[in-house]
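Re: [help] complex structure
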Amino acid sequence: MLNIKNLYASVQGNQILKGVSLAVNAGEVHAIMGPNGSGKSTLSRVVTGHPQYTVDGGVLEYDIGGQMTNIIGKEPDERAREGIFLAFQYPVEIPGVPASEFLRASYNAVGRHHGLEEMDPIDFDVFVREKMKVLEMDDKYLDRALNVDFSGGEKKRNEILQMAVLNPRLALLDETDSGLDIDSMKIVAHGVNTLRSKRNAMIVITHYQRLLNFIKPDFVHILYQGKIIKSGGPDLALKVEDKGYDWLIK
Amino acid sequence: MNTAFDSTQLFKSLSQGREESFKALAALPWPNFKDEDWKYTSLNALAQASCVPSSKPFVFENCQKFLTNAPLIKENVNPGGLFKALNRIFSPSCQMIDIPPGLEVNLPLKIVYALNASDNGKAFFPGLTIRLGKGARARILQIFSSRNAAGILIDDVNDIMLEPEAELELVQIFLNDAQSFQISHTHVHQKKDSRLRMFQYTDGANVFRNNLNVVLDAEGSETVLNGLHDLKDIRQADSHTFVDHVAPNARSNQLYKSILDGESRSVFNGKILVRREAQLTNSYQLNKNLLLSRDARVDTKPQLQIYADDVKCSHGATIGQLDDEQLFYLQTRGVGKDDARKMLIRGFVDDVINQVKDLGLKKSLLEAIS
Ligand SMILES: Nc1ncnc2c1ncn2[C@@H]1O[C@H](COP(=O)(O)OP(=O)(O)O)[C@@H](O)[C@H]1O
Ligand SMILES: [Mg+2]
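Output below.
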């Protein structure tokens, strides 16, 4: 579904990704771990098409209509409509835009692309509230301006709600667990798990292996200084938890 | 000479007013950028325009009961500047809406000044007086609609008097042609415990100048002034607000926003005067500008003059652009770039539009500006 090969990327003249390779198939969950500043968020932004980041080399392909397609240069919204989703490490506050209005615009933009009819506000309200229940979100959420004055936990839940609404084929979760207490983390993890299926894939970026107790990965990769320096199964995460990164960096 | 008219009180007062106005005019130089009041708005294009004086009345909806039959003689011009003097000379009288004491008018009153292509090249000097009697309440929509009238000058004067405990919500909408000139004056006089809530919308003109003066003349009066400049191409809008805190214990709150695209220009000048007697004044002012283009320009200038010591006052101004991170965020949710920009722009104006509390007025505003 996603094929990254020897990917180089930079931001503001700084080379951050230095030859990342990663292949993700439908149905798989990949975890990416690594110390702060190693390029995890950069990778997520390059895959989703942030305009500030330039790809300097390598391959970035994604399955569109059964064809692995080069997505370098495609706008973020084109990628999103094809089913790529990013749960932000730091969700952005958008004053004056009610969450409900935004969610519906988002859902309809993606739906239209796939030839679906637009959902009217009333049907959409029912649809969203169903998803909000799973994430134990407050009723008032929909009337509030997007992420404005949301607590850290609310923001993260909101990201997963958007994921639930859009039902992406490829979801990247960037430190969705950071800033969450254990109860909130369980709720969020449960929300994520309900979205797991054979047809979609996830890349879970995290610092801590504790999230991986709840969202069980098939593969674990260690990103360090812009490169994946080690890949393995779930036990790699446990080992990192136990020993830190030093043994990998040598 | 029409001798019958000659001898009337009306004639005398008109001629006297006219004479005074001409005298005043002689003392008023044509403003240029050296004039503090016109520092950022050039009147060169207006100086070159040739306009034939003409007249047209305001058209009223839902107001019949409150219209006074005889046109009022305008009050003395001073102080008021050149354009107020011109208004007085070319149209000495004004129309009036008078809401009796104690009456609450639920339906929004509508006042329309409509010009069209047949008015090209003409100059208009409308005058309007609105008075709300003691404890009266009203909502008023005033629209200047001259979309296809090019090369016109509208030089209007609106006088508003709020008697004690009166409450007025007023929305003014200015829809001009890009090749038109409008110099608008709104003067508000507020008495004890009266309340004004006002919203001014313009999408600019060749030269658009809005002078809004509010005098808080008695204790407990409150004024909330909001506005939006929604500009593109080479349009321009200039709002000068002046809130005069004369009496103690009064409140004023201003939020003015501008959106600027193309090569448009926006000027905001907000003056707050808190006189020595005006203790316990609460006065706030904020001007926020969103630049959508590199070629647009904003000049914003707050002027606080505070002579009382026990007051709460603040002011601020910001100039920003659309935020790349916000755009990216919306785009990662499938929303196309243009729609994302529109969403952010709407988000930017959301709080100021929501300052319009009457739902009927808000609906009319949204219709007019969509
Ligand atoms: N917009 C940016 N401008 C400049 N440097 C950046 C930017 N984004 C990230 N970086 C730099 O790239 C490196 C990797 O950052 P990031 O991808 O956020 O790491 P991680 O998510 O693994 O903590 C860091 O050194 C960071 O300072
Ligand atoms: Mg990060």
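The beta strands of chain A are 2-11, 14-24, 29-33, 53-64, 67-70, 84-87, 170-174, 201-205, 219-224, 227-232.
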